[in-house]
Amino acid sequence: MSKSKRLMELMMTVNRMRKFTVKELAAEFNVSSRTILRDLQELSELGVPLYSEVGPHGGYQVLKERILPPIAFGVDEAVAMFFASHALRHYLSLPFEAESSSALQKFYFYMPGDVRDRIDEMKNRVDFHAHDRRQKVDCLGLLLEAAVRQRVVTIRYGSKQEDSERSIQPVGIYASNGFWYCPAYCFLRRGFRLFRCDRIRSAAFDETGIEPLDHRHVHLGNWEEFGREERIDVRIVAELSREGVQRCQGELSHVPFIAVREDGSGRLDQRVPESELPYFAKFFLGLGGEATVEGPEELVALIRKLLSELSAKYGLM
Amino acid sequence: MSKSKRLMELMMTVNRMRKFTVKELAAEFNVSSRTILRDLQELSELGVPLYSEVGPHGGYQVLKERILPPIAFGVDEAVAMFFASHALRHYLSLPFEAESSSALQKFYFYMPGDVRDRIDEMKNRVDFHAHDRRQKVDCLGLLLEAAVRQRVVTIRYGSKQEDSERSIQPVGIYASNGFWYCPAYCFLRRGFRLFRCDRIRSAAFDETGIEPLDHRHVHLGNWEEFGREERIDVRIVAELSREGVQRCQGELSHVPFIAVREDGSGRLDQRVPESELPYFAKFFLGLGGEATVEGPEELVALIRKLLSELSAKYGLM
DNA sequence: TATAATAGTGACAACCTCTGTCATTATTAC
DNA sequence: GTAATAATGACAGAGGTTGTCACTATTATA
To answer: Most buried by CB count within 10 Å: which residue of A175, A246, B221, B232?
Structure first.
């Protein structure tokens, strides 16, 4: 094998292995230890961050900075990755320690000229928005670590009514609509609940010895299925104007079932958990004249109640 | 310079240059043409997709698949890029032709073992949500191309009231809240307007010969500043409950100015364009009892009007 | 049709780099 | 102390690399 090829393969090999000795590599590549030593020095000069320790159980290591081997990317692929990563700048807080901007700069810098040109062209023309939030969330890394390692976390949580202390076992974290959310098993409520990370005032791994539950099979994709047996559905029916249809499609978090007519108006007919009726009452109120709720009766009653409260507040009755 | 180093640099060089001849490279690297030919063949064997043409104006080219040279990434950097790109799967439509998933697979495949482990651990535990939408948008690529190349596009647009045909010159496109938006200069209204891409029923480059305007200085970051001279601000003041504060922070698209008190309640005091008062009237109505609007008088009047309409509709008066 | 520009191949000798071996030093765990 | 490991230097020989030259093939252009 020629030296150049050996160097390339060596680069990949040392990246694959956490730890290795010169002897091992010499055996693997069928060359002498002396040669491997010289090769490793050359890799070092090429930028691979090697670190060595002498003595028994010593050996070589690659430091946490790894070399990504040469990868063939199509222009569009590289561009897509670039803008996806670029979108992370909208997040004030990320669960990763490193700033993604450094990775982005490297990526950009090493890109072939025409890809870079393409990116430059598009730089101010494409974006994946996220709501910009001022609030910084410090606990993301801890929550993620807890989710990965199945650990219990004690948090102080500011819910709608008041602050409370509780122990949770996170399922994971996700960003949505500019906020970070953490679904977790709540030992207080004995069930899965959704927490908003910016309302977590403080968080730390549990020290009181609460035994973690085995929730390795629960993840972001399926946690909602667990512990929701008490859910009762009611059927909402509402008549929507053209604008009402558009706002429902835009603002409801789950894609609503709406039969849309030729002229753009439509009719919503959807089952929702009974517990969410207060939310929908306010939602349809916010649509003003664009929506007319026909059922269920409880929902209409809630809307009437809100209406009279508001009428009183604004001096109409 | 040693052969290995020359090969590495050669790889970067050919990636940087669109087109090149053997002679040029020979001059640049101070070696003979024969050597460069041998090197290029070796690069070819290593996977760089080279293509050559003989004759005058011939030469070498690298095909559109480019080789990304070795890059040193920290674990966190690679992880961040991975998840950012992973988030693109939420988008049914993207302005890039390539599927980002192919890039992601390559990226993942070539990653050092421990980085891959780290990603696997986190795979179902971190996510950047985007509202999942059923609608597919076909015109994204065209709009983006038009924005980059300063071209005029003729669209059929379904606005709040009705469908209409108009010529626009896109500024760019961005995804927000699950929808794609396209700010553009509208030749019909003679000003910049925001279009929602899924409401663009059809789009094509203009054929009627409308002269594009020079809007190269207008981009996603500043387009709102152009052509908004008629804007009149009014000052909204509202008292908010704890929940009201949270909903305002979550749902208003611009970060609102809210003075938050110890107990979580707060007071909003913000200037907004007068034209948006109808929107805010409905918004505050949707907050129900969590908000009490104190001013301006026009806003309160709008709310009262909505209230009495709704009261009539729901049989309260 | 001739000419020039380009890629591509083969051969060969000179040169230089790479490789293995050996000797040696330094460090550290056990 | 001993064994395991990295690190360095010297040297000779093997083998790879390079430049030159001669030649072929293709193609745009005058």
So the answer is: A175
